[in-house]
Amino acid sequence: MAENISDNTPQGTSQHTAGAFDIRNLIGGLIGVYGIILTLLGLFNASDEELARGDGLNINLWAGLGMLVVGIGFITWARLRPVVVPSDPEQES
Amino acid sequence: MLAAADGPFRLNADFFDYSIIALYFIVVLGIGIIARRQVSSSIDFFLSGRSLPAWVTGLAFISANLGAVEIMGMSANGAQFGMATVHYFWIGAVPAMLFLGVVMMPFYYGSGVRSVPEFMRKRFGTGAHLVNALSFAIAQLLIAGINLYLLATIVNRLLGWPLWVSLVVAAAIVLSYTALGGLSAAIYNEVLQFFVIVAALLPLTIIALHKVGGWQGIQDRIQPGQEQLSSWPGTDLTGIDNPVLSVIGLVFGLGFVLSFGYWTTNFVEVQRAMASSSVSAARRAPIIGAFPKMFIPFIVIIPGIIAAIVVPELANLKSGSGDTGGATYNDAILLLMRDLLPNGMLGVAIAGLLASFMAGMAANISAFNTVFSYDLWQQYVVKDREDSYYLATGRIATVAATVIAIGTAAIASNYDNLMDYLQTLFGFFNAPLFATFILGMFWKRMSATAGWTGLVAGTLAAVVVAVAGQDVLGSLSQGWVNLSGQGASFAAAGAAFVVDIVVSVVVTQFTRPREESELRGLVYSLTPKESLVDAGEGVLSWYQSPTRLAAIGLVLVIALNLIFR
């Protein structure tokens, strides 16, 4: 990846980064959304019967918070170190 | 397993679970469509344009293997045999992955071949190539069928759809993204799948450990006794009563022949590394993959062990008394999910299992279409056409493979113990391959005839041992020798390896070696050392150096073996 970054030209940064198609954004996005859903379920939808099954551990809440952290981590990584797509005439059009 | 669609096996998924699963499929298909835009030549389709960074190919490398067999089979082994199952990871995978990265990958990547069978053709000519390409293609179709069958089983249990409808729908989803985006779509999805699988299994492991009372709780309650928590000598796992022979079987049969055969010559795996952007990235791919591979047992085997304690049906199955409700060890993870997970986490867990099964099948299909298009169609059927012709061939092969996999799924459903069945296949195809490759890479005199005769003789030796043993091949096995289960697979693979070496060496003495000029880049002593590494490798930092990473990996895996002995 180091070679790619050095290819980066000052005028075309936004055009040449992989952006939303960077796999890290897709991973971060999906895991992050899972995190939001699970956290909310853990906070507002945890029935006593469900909690009893796991001997009181609210797994939705804790797994949700963990996924939220991982998701944000991936998106931050992709922001800080963007993948640069080599300029290719076919892809520019 | 076919009858398991009703009653206690039904997972009670609700709206939130279905939303989570649907979200996953939207992203999977989205990746296929995005990757489609980047495919402009056959190299793009089959090898991702050789442009992917090492962490992506490294994770795809193990994710391609993190299929149904790994999750269901290894948790089943964990439930049945306990900690001895870690041998499949720490003995049976990690050393071979490190060896592939350090020793063999420079030849694969540096010679510019597009597939493992193509390396075979350059080194040994068309005889060995045809044997290798055909056996590989057939094996992929069989294994894709097994993965598809397990995928359909999950859909069947979850939605209650008839098994054949589940089969067709599951196949259609895998087909849509592999046919659209080729290897890039498969690899990107594998990386995503890896994280979804971890997101599914890690919380399951945590809640299971909480439920059973931590490691102490496992020690107190494990059945039939404490020997289930030590990995050596693993006599239950191998089915060999003598502890010394059992250790020899594990180290030589599983650790050397089966595992090196599988990880170093299986194009499903090697293809992921070949898609890397440089020699050093290609070498790093299996080595980076080895690190997560070391820790997967903790989220696969531990839940299996706990399932056999806390799930009543499995506890009854193991103790041999009480009502099992028709449960088998293969159901360990599903039953644990049913008993412990609340809605929400249940959806993530189901998505993770579906992801895992699709990863396995997509990997088989994308490796199959490459070998079929380049090594069979282009080499033997229709030569010298333009690149777009072979790209189209690849897409048609993908469709055909998926249709055939639906058929082989029916074959897979007839076998109880999926691990045995697969180990047997690997023994037949991979063990002799490894012998031929390693001889061919380091012994320049080895002749072309020795290449294919060694392979055929080795494969036949494995078949003979399997037929002589007990129940390795179901009703085909005659039981002449008292060997069953995993131990018989180890023996078959070992026989294949030894016979291959002996036949190759003997045949080479009577046949003419190939011209040395034809073997440049393929044999160690005839390859300039600088073509095996990157020009800039000297300036890589320590975490980018394949050999240093591999050394760290080796120390770690030895430490793990000592801790959990």
Assigned CATH architecture of the largest domain in chain B: Up-down Bundle
Largest sheet of chain A: none
Instruction: Note the run of SSEs of chain A as H and E.
Output: HHHHHH
CATH topology of the largest domain in chain B: Sodium/glucose cotransporter
Beta-strand content bin of chain B = under 5%
Shape field of chain A:
rod-shaped
What is the global morphology of chain B? globular
Q: Report the count of strand segments of chain A.
A: 0
CATH class of the largest domain in chain B: Mainly Alpha
Mean pLDDT of chain B: 79
CATH homologous superfamily annotation of the largest domain in chain B = Sodium/glucose cotransporter
Individual helix count of chain B: 22
| Termini separation of chain B | 34 Å
Would you count the extended β strands of chain B for me? 0
Uncertain runs of chain B with pLDDT below 50, 5 residues or more? 1-7
Report the oligomer: heterodimer
- Integer average pLDDT of chain A: 71
Structural overview:
- The complex is a heterodimer of chains A (93) and B (565).
- Chain A has a domain at 20-84.
- Chain A is built from six helices and no strands.
- Chain A has helices at residues 2-7, 13-16, 23-44, 48-53, 59-80, 89-92.
- In chain A, helix 3 runs antiparallel to helix 5.
- Chain A is rod-shaped.
- Residues 1-16 and 87-93 of chain A have low confidence and may be disordered.
- With 565 residues, chain B is mainly alpha-helical.
- Chain B folds into two domains: 2-37 and 46-55 and 64-84 and 130-239 and 298-414, Sodium/glucose cotransporter (Up-down Bundle), CATH 1.20.1730.10; 415-528, no CATH class.
- In chain B, helix 3 (54-63) packs parallel to helix 14, helix 8 (126-159) packs across helix 20 and helix 14 crosses helix 16 (332-340).
- Chain B starts with 14 loop residues before the first helix and ends with a helix.
- At the A-B interface, helix 3, helix 4 and helix 5 of A face helix 1 and helix 9 of B.
